[in-house]
Structures are given as C-alpha cells and as structure tokens.
Design brief:
By secondary structure, this protein is an alpha+beta fold. It has a single domain (about 5-230), classed as Pseudouridine synthase, CATH 3.30.2350.10. Helix content is about 15%, strand content about 35%. Strands 1, 2, 3, 4, 5, 6, 7, 8, 9, 10 and 11 form an eleven-stranded mixed beta sheet that branches.
Length: about 240
C-alpha cells in the first residue's frame, strides 16, 4: 500500500492515512498504519530487528488525512504531552447533511462512550462518566442540502466530530451510525484530517502538516478551490 509521506526526520514522520485503513492493529487483522509504516521504514532504511514507532493520536478507520507518528520513545513522550496539554492542533473538513443554524460557532458538549457498541452519546450538560468535548466550526460552502465545513478540535474525544454534528441535526454524509440518511454512491464517511500542528519534540519549532481531501465520494461534490479553501480555514485560529 502506497502511503504519502509529508515530512520525516530522525524523530517524527507525518503521513496521509488513506480512508479505510486502521490507525493501529485490532482483532480483524486488517492493514493498519502503525504496522505498514514500521515495515516501510524497515525496508527503506534496511534496519535490522524491530522498528520503534509510537502512535501519538488516532483517526477513525474510515477517516483519511494527516497523522503524525513518533520515531523515538522520547519523541513519543513529548508529543503525547503536547496532546494532553492541548498544544496539538488538529483541523478537519467534513460534509454534512443539512445546513447548521449558525455559519460559525463553538460546540461544547459532554460525550460518553459505550465501548461495547463502539458508539458515543452526546449531552448538553455534565453527566456521569461523560467528558467535555469542544470544537469550533465554520461553514465553507453550501450546495443544496449539503454543507462543506471546516472544523478545529479543542478536545480529542472518540467520534467527537461525528457525534457533535449529528447532535445539532447535521450528521456527516455516509455516517449511518450517527443518523445520516443513506446516499447513493457514498461508501466513506465525509471527514478528513486536513492539518496537524505541533511543536517539534526536539527543536520545539512549531510545525504544521496539511492535506486536502480528494478523489472520491462526497469530496467530488466540491470544486478543488473550495476544498483547498476549506482545508485552510481555522488552521491558525
């Protein structure tokens, strides 16, 4: 499987995850980014023995876009601390069914996950075992009954974007789990990780890596210029 590398040095590697590929191995035995990249690094650099690669953050299986991995344990520890301290910037674009009431807003909710069902429930007020979920969004374009939206995450809860937009009545196209109506020809959830911004774990220089969705499903409904514009929105917010 060909994986696009956006940046690589001795400490980190930034890549574009294809939709449908797991972030890390699970019981299915299907291809996952961690294993694929370890194999790639081992072959490209002719490394003997095991290759270290640290998973710093995850994307849902059907979500494509930018991911960063750590190539040393020190880098993994420092990047994980950036995630915990919310110094790990993440922006996305998505296509939703419907048009949000406000063209731009902050959504603050509380999310509780049911691990058995692999599904989350969204609440408007603090609830037992629920964690705060915050995101900002801005509508980039509207076409009929669909909206192209830029999203900036402030927390990284499971299924957060999918669940919060479903909660306001605008489920993501293709996301049947969270109430989207079936759409002919759509096989993927219309969600893409467009940028990740983080201090380099060694130099501390702020680095940003970007990817624009393209190729299939709901992304073909929009012009390249619209996708490019949406992908750049909120990245510096």
């Amino acid at each position: 499987m060909s994986i696009k590398v956006l940046f690589e040095d001795n400490h980190i590697i930034a890549v574009v995850k294809p939709p449908g590929v797991l972030s890390q191995e699970d019981d299915t035995g299907d291809p996952d980014m961690l294993t694929l990249l370890k194999q790639d690094i081992k072959e490209r650099y002719n490394k003997p023995g095991n290759v270290f690669l640290g998973l710093v953050h995850r994307l849902d299986r059907m979500v494509g876009g930018v991911m960063i991995f750590a190539k040393t344990s020190k880098a993994a520890s420092r990047l994980s601390e950036s995630v915990r301290s919310r110094d790990f910037g993440k922006t996305y674009v998505c296509v939703v069914q419907g048009v949000p009431n406000k063209p731009q807003a902050r959504l603050t909710n509380f999310i509780r996950k049911d691990n058995k069902q692999n599904q989350v429930t969204v609440y408007n007020k603090p609830t037992s075992d629920a964690k705060e979920a915050i995101l900002d969004y801005e509508v980039a374009a509207v076409s009929g009954r669909y909206s192209l939206i830029a999203v900036k995450l402030h927390t990284g809860r499971p299924h957060q974007i999918r669940a919060q937009f479903a909660h306001i009545g605008c489920p993501l196209v293709g996301d049947l789990k969270y109430g989207a109506k079936p759409t002919a020809g759509i096989a993927e959830i219309a969600l893409w990780s467009t940028s990740v911004s983080v201090p380099h774990p060694v130099s501390k220089e702020r680095m940003s890596f970007r990817s624009v969705p393209s190729g299939s499903d709901a992304w073909t409904w929009w012009m390249d210029a619209q996708l490019e514009e949406a992908s750049g929105m909120l990245s510096n917010a």
